[in-house]
Amino acid sequence: MKLSSRSRYGVRALCALAILSRDNSPVPLARISKCEGIPKQYLGLIFHKLRKSGHVEAVRGLNGGYKLAKSPAEITVASVVRALDGPIAPVKCLIEREKGHRYCWREEVCLSRPAWAFLQQQIEKTLESITIESLIKKKCPTET
Fold this sequence. Notes:
47% of the residues lie in helices and 9% in strands. By secondary structure, it is mainly alpha-helical. The strands form two sheets. It has a two-stranded antiparallel sheet. Helix 1 crosses helix 2 (29-36), helix 1 crosses helix 3 and helix 1 (5-20) packs across helix 4 (77-85).
C-alpha cells in the first residue's frame, strides 16, 4: 500500500503547525509551505479537507492562519489519512461502497480476502498508534 502525497504532506504540515504554533496562535499557510517545501496552493487544498474533518481551524484577519483544532496527542496519522484519502484499505474489496455493499462480488468465496483484511487491521492499528505529538517528539510507539 502506498500513501498519497496528500496524506504525507498533510501529516508533515500538521507536525509543522504543531511546532510553529506552540502557544496555539494561528500560523499562515505561507509559513507552513515554506518550512515544509510544500506548494502553497496544494497545501491550501489539503488544509481545506483538514478543516472540514475537524483537524484544524481557520482564523481570518490580519494575524490569521491555521491552528490545530485538537491537541497534537489527539490527532492520529490514521485520522489524517482518512480525512485526506478516505478509508485505509490495501485492496478495494475491503471498502464499502454503500451500506453493506462492497466492490467485489467474490467476498464470500475469496480465499485471499482474510489476508488483506488482516493487513488492513495491522495498518490501521499502527497508524492509530502514531500521533502528531509522537512524531514531533520523535517517539513512535515502537521506539523505546
